[in-house]
Amino acid sequence: MESVYFKYMVKNKKVLIIGAGIAGLSSAIRMAVKGYDVHLFEASDRVGGKLHQFYLDDYRFDAGPSLFTMPQYVTDLFRLANKNPEDYFEYEKLEVVCNYFWEDGTKLSTFADHRKNVEEIAEKLSEKIDDVEKHFKDSALKYELTGKTFLEYTLHSLKTWMTKDVFKALTQIHKLDVFGTMHGVNARRFQNPKTVQLFDRYATYNGSNPYKAPGMLNIIPHFEYGFGAFIPKNGMSDISQSIYQLGLDLGVKYHFNTKVDQIIKCRDTVQGIKTLSGESIEGDIVISNMDAYFTYLHLLDQRKEADKVLRQERSSSALIFYWGINKSFAELDLHNIFFANDYQHEFDCISKGSISDDPTLYINITSKYVDKDAPEGKENWFTMINVPYNQGQDWDQLIEQSRQNILGKLSQILKTEIAPLIECEEILDPRSIESKTMSYTGSLYGTSSNTKWAAFARHPNQSPQYGNLYFVGGSVHPGGGVPLCLLSSKIVDDLIHEK
Ligand SMILES: Cc1cc2nc3c(=O)[nH]c(=O)nc-3n(C[C@H](O)[C@H](O)[C@H](O)COP(=O)(O)OP(=O)(O)OC[C@H]3O[C@@H](n4cnc5c(N)ncnc54)[C@H](O)[C@@H]3O)c2cc1C
Asked: Could you check whether the bond before residue 430 is cis, i.e. omega within 30 degrees of 0?
């Protein structure tokens, strides 16, 4: 809790936030709790950016994120504001984390229960229990050694590096698998290529390629199994809705349908913003939740700085078919993966800007847990494949081809013709992701982690040029995904507060 003196000091200070993505919303809470006069400007008419919902006939869909991990980063916001999180936001832990299917008939489920999970993977994929155990232990160790430093602090301050945690991590650097690829590490550990595929898939959690990304990314399973996978009681969009509601209660002033057109600069500080309609608003602090590339290009008019952001490879994008399905499938759960036969080929295609004829499919069905998301006996399928970011491909042709391939694969594995079951459909592709959320090239997670230096190359949370300009969200440190975006707002809070 801040002192009365601090609150008095900031009471008349204005914070301007650009974008109501998850990081912009959480930044607003953190600043309002500190006592600032907070104004948030959002170009669209809705809350949440990529994390929003929509309806198609009688079906509800979460538009973007579907996997919810690290719920404590959400509930922390309510606690910071001295509120009871449960008054705003409820969620439950998943017992079955994900169902996996291969075309040869192999199936397995992964579980929250550690013993059950390890035994299922070992039994179904003929692996040694010890190898599976070791993989999860190594994942937890990577988090223990690096999690706090790399995810919770700025990497651009000497203070972050002068700690016991960093010293400990350096003495055990050989355990971090920084130098080999994720696939290389997994292929050495496991006998069965399916187990390698199962664990390689975690690279896609931040839009990366397991054949290029460092073995360090094997930290990701720990988020899902060490901390758990969850579902909000009313679906994913409840995360952004509940934080928005908290902001209203704390006095945050939201300005929807208000696109910011310019950040007003004056020597080494910024003085406020200008909206598309020409209104200038002065502020003491500006926080951009807009993609860092677009912030430089459009709001700061600094092409050279924008180009610097592009030195790092963009993360992959996604093609999503939202389908209202006139049937219920007992073998499916909330999260379902249908693996490609040739995983490397799938990533080679993505690297070349194309889509494999046999992509790995992900189906998310929230109506398995939230009854009202689909009519009785029916299901809301969020069917997604990983695709390259937008480089001007012929998307209409790629979408048509992929739709046929997806339907063929699903019909074969589920032994049911899927096409006649589709009652309604909406499609999201890299072009629409870019136009709807202003994420450059439609990347889901800003930049990829395909090199071992990726964490260091990501844009910092404070502008190197303007002392009172900050950056949050998936395109900056610590990276994309809901938990990391929430942490970016914590880092900015700390940076401002330290001053
Ligand atoms: C299909 C899909 C699936 C995903 N799956 C997962 C998942 O399962 N789990 C997970 O953790 N993450 C997932 N992600 C990633 C996750 O959604 C993002 O990392 C995260 O939501 C990005 O949040 P953000 O704070 O960067 O803001 P964004 O969601 O990118 O929102 C930015 C906001 O800023 C607004 N804006 C931009 N420019 C301006 C301007 N000039 N003026 C005013 N407003 C502006 C935009 O309208 C938008 O509302 C997925 C993303 C997508 C698209």
From this structure: no
For residue range 148-177, list pLDDT tens digits in order: 787 888 877 778 767 888 777 777 778 888
Please give the single-letter amino acid code of residue 445.
Y
Expressed in angstroms and rounded, the spacing between residue 470 Cα and the centre of ligand 1 is 17
Dist. CA 210–CA 387, nearest whole Å:
14
User: What integer is the mean pLDDT of 356-367?
Assistant: 98
Whether the CB-CB separation of 336 and 365 falls below 8 Å is answered with yes
Q: Structural domains in the chain?
A: 4-50+76-85+235-312+449-498 (3.50.50.60), 117-224 (no CATH)
Distance 60 CA to ligand 1 centre (A): 19
pLDDT digits (tens, 9 = 90+) for 293-342: 999 999 999 999 999 988 888 999 999 999 999 999 999 999 999 999 99
What SS3 state is found at 454? helix
Q: What is the pTM of this model?
A: 0.95
DSSP secondary structure of 226-274: IS-EEEETT-THHHHHHHHHHHHHHT-EEETT--EEEEEEETTEEEEEE
Whose Cα sits closest to atom 46 in ligand 1?
437
Rounded to 5 degrees, φ, ψ at 227 are: -95, -30
In terms of C-beta density within 10 A (0-12 exposed, 13-18 middle, 19 or more buried), how is residue 180 classed?
Answer: middle
Residue of 316, 366, 438 to test ligand 1 pocket, by largest number of atoms within 8 Å of CB: 438
Task: Name all residues whose Cβ lies below 6 A of ligand 1.
Answer: 18-24, 41-44, 49-51, 64-67, 259-260, 289-290, 318, 320, 433, 437-439, 444-445, 473-474, 480-482, 485
